[in-house]
Structure formats: structure tokens, C-alpha cells
Amino acid sequence: MASDKLFIQTLKGNQKDRVPFWFMRQAGRYLPEYMALRKEAGSFLDLCYNSDFATEVTLQPIRRFNMDAAILFSDILVIPHALGQDLAFQVGEGPVLTPVNNIEKLEALSKDNFHDHLNPVYQTVSNLSKKLPDHVALIGFAGAPWTVATYMVGGRGSKDQAETRIMAYQDRETFEQLINLLVDVTSEYLIRQVDHGAEVLQIFDSWSGSLPADEFIKWCVEPMVKIVQNIRAVHPDVPIIGFPKGAGAKIKNYIKKTRVNAVSIDTSTSTSWVRDAVQPLCTVQGNLDPIMLVRGGAPLERAVHHILDHLKDGSHIFNLGHGIIPQTPPENVKMVSDILLSYRR
Ligand code: 1CP
Prior knowledge:
With 345 residues, the protein is α/β, with parallel strands linked by helices. The protein has a single domain (6-342), classed as TIM Barrel (Alpha-Beta Barrel), CATH 3.20.20. Helix content is 52%, strand content 12%. It contains 17 helices and nine strands. The chain has helices at 6-11, 32-41, 44-49, 51-65, 78-82, 103-108, 114-117, 119-131, 145-154, 162-170, 172-195, 213-234, 251-258, 271-278, 290-295, 297-311, 330-342, and strands at residues 69-71, 87-90, 94-97, 137-143, 200-205, 240-244, 262-264, 283-288, 316-320. A seven-stranded parallel beta sheet has the order 1-4-5-6-7-8-9. Helix 4 runs parallel beside helix 8. The structure holds coproporphyrinogen I (1CP). Residues 24-29, 38, 44, 71, 73, 75-77, 89, 94-95, 141, 143, 147, 157, 204, 206, 323 line the site of coproporphyrinogen I.
């Protein structure tokens, strides 16, 4: 039986009076209760691999703000970690990995321990599916192969993903082998999340905006087509949200080819263009500027209404254009949540 949760109904294209909402990175450093648990856990990765703590951190923003969906607390980089790549999160620096940038290093990765390594994540999903309030949907997630590959090859975050683009253009065969591996393991990982109780999946391609059009098709669209097919072969009804950040107008072709149920829209995309060109194709999720959420006050209120006014006549889930940043005052998140809870189309 299809769920009657507002979030899931909206993803199926059935609009209701209220616009459902959640925020990317809704659990995180802007919340004092998150900081307290993170300190207790030790490191960020310890938090991700401790199912009790990860469950609690996922629930924290729901208690404060009553969103329509909770997103599993984990990170996109647990996949390379589960393949045997070294990973650490250094304070102030973000993730640091030993680069996998040639065939020898790629062949040193192994799937043997993959699901065992990720077992705590599956356990978190199971816990959450029992603990969430009845009306709140559970989102599982993974990074898209291109975005995960940029960290695996570069060994850290970067502004332009240059090292990974060089490998993709120069050593196409090895890079394709890496992407194919990621397609396989990401599909399996997401299928297991649904097996354990995830009701919706979101796939983050945060760095798809750095590729020219035909490379975007090769490294972002085609892998995503396969992942969606693999998931639907096992779980035909689970709604899938794609987030090809920075794709601009290429998002239309992304939707047509991948056949996702919804797309997340980044902040730089105009809401009137989304209404006219994207919303007729699928449900859209977005796209408040996370920096406006830091600003607060009347400008924030106006920005929220601008998005609602433009997208209310089509299938819409309110969200940010990217994740909440640590400087965000929780009371601003509360203000936006309260507007959305009382808003009617
Ligand atoms: O506590 C801390 O210091 C760690 C900060 C943090 C958090 C809270 C990181 C490190 N990851 C996360 C959680 C996280 N990451 C979630 C949890 C669920 C939620 O949304 O509440 C999700 C979905 C992610 C996904 C993620 N991790 C992405 C894709 C989405 C996006 O933001 O673009 C990416 C690119 C990462 C990599 C990552 N994780 C963390 C850092 C600092 C980075 C690097 C970002 C960069 O390169 O700029």
C-alpha cells in the first residue's frame, strides 16, 4: 500500500494543501545538541558509525522543527571507506583520503568487506524506521558516482575538481572502471537502505556543475540511469530524488534520461524557469539560499514566499538549494518551518 505521508504523496505527484519540507544538512553543527553528541562520539566518523548516536542526531531537527522528512545521518564518503580507502575528517579541513588515481590503486580497493563495514548505517536506518513519528518519511541517500569519485581521486574537497577531470579526460578507461565500480556498490548500498526501512532515496551529485555538457552525460547522467534502473528492479515504487547541483538547463535532459521522481534545485536556478521548464517534468525540491537562512528577518520571510508563490501550483517540496551552514541561527530555521507548517496553497 502506498504511504499516505504528505512527503511521499507529493513525490508521487499528488499535491495536497500544504507544501512538505525538509532541509539539506538539517542535522549538523548549527545545533548545540548535535555538537554535544559529536563531542561525546569522538570524531565525525565515529558519530556516523555509532547507530545509536546517528539515530539520535537524525531525530534532533525533527523534534525542534517538525519537518516532513528525516534524512539518515551519515556521509557520502562512507562508500570509499567501505571499499578500503583511507578516510579521516580533519578539523577545519574537511575530508582527507589517500588518492585513488591510477589502475593499481583502483585494483587495491575491495568489495569483500563492503556491507559488513556499512552494517552500522543499515542499523541506523532500521532504528529510525521504528522511531520516527508516523507522519515523517525516512530518506536514505548516497553520493552520485561522479561526486564521490572527485573525493576518491583528489583526496579532498576542491573548488574545481581539476584532478578528477584530468583523470577522466586523460585516463578514460581507468576512470570508467572506477565509475562502474561506484555504480555497482552505490546501487547495492541504496537497495539495502530500502530493505532496512528507507522510504525515499536522494542521490547527491554536488559537483556535477564542473563538467562540460557531453562529460556531464557520460559521468553524471549515464551512471545515474543505471543506478535508478538497478534500484527499481528490486524496489519499483521507492521514490528517487536526484540532485545534479550546478546542472542549470541540463537538468531537463537529466530528468528525461534518468526518470527520477524529483530533482533538488540549487540556489542559482531561477524559480520562474523551474516553474515553466522543470515542474512540468517532475516534482521539484528547493531552492532557498542557505545564506539567506543565516540572514533571517523580513528578507528571509520574503525569500520563502517568493519560492512558494512561484512553485505552489505544481508539485513542490520546500528545501534549501544546498546544505544548512554551521553559522545558521536555529531560530531562523524555526521561523521558516513555522511559515511552512501554517502555509496553505
Ligand atoms: O560535524 C562535522 O564537523 C561534520 C560536518 C558534516 C556533516 C554534518 C559532514 C562532513 N557531513 C555531514 C553529514 C552529511 N553529509 C549528511 C547528513 C544528513 C543531513 O543532510 O542532515 C549528508 C546528506 C551529507 C552529504 C555530503 N557529504 C555531500 C553531498 C551534499 C552536499 O553537501 O553537497 C558531500 C559533498 C559531503 C562531503 C563532506 N562531508 C563533510 C564535509 C566537510 C564534506 C566536504 C564538503 C566539501 O568538499 O566542501
